[in-house]
Amino acid sequence: MLESVPLTNMMFAVVFCTLVSVADASVVVQDAEMETSQDSVSPGALPLLSMLLPEKGAAFQAVPMRTLRAPSASVASEPRMALPSIDDARSLSDEDIQKEITNAKKELFELRKKVKTRQEVKPHLFTHTKHRVSQLQTLLAQRQAA
Fold this sequence. Notes:
The protein is built from six helices and no strands. By secondary structure, the chain is mainly alpha-helical. It has two domains: 52 residues; 64 residues, Helix Hairpins, CATH 1.10.287. The relative contact order is 0.07.
């Protein structure tokens, strides 16, 4: 009697592995049939497979992603962070503006270096710093043209 216990366990293992492989095969069959038509596996084709697979409209189906997402219209209409203002740079001299441009470009370099070394970076700082550089360059160009 003791010798039959391991044999029974082994038989259960074989049956379980067979069921798992049948279930895996059924997923492949189901994927192949979904490519050709919208119907699922027919219950008459594989009786064991139809017992393992859920019917259409089963209670444990995944929730569609569109119901989990927030409405995008409200997010797009609100600005995330305010860009830097040019008003504080208007009172600077040309040399100070050049220094500010150099400092901003160095800051951009440091931000890129942080990204490459996988350090934590706030992504909006790229946009803000580039915007600041272009503001300062525009202000400098306007002064030189005048």
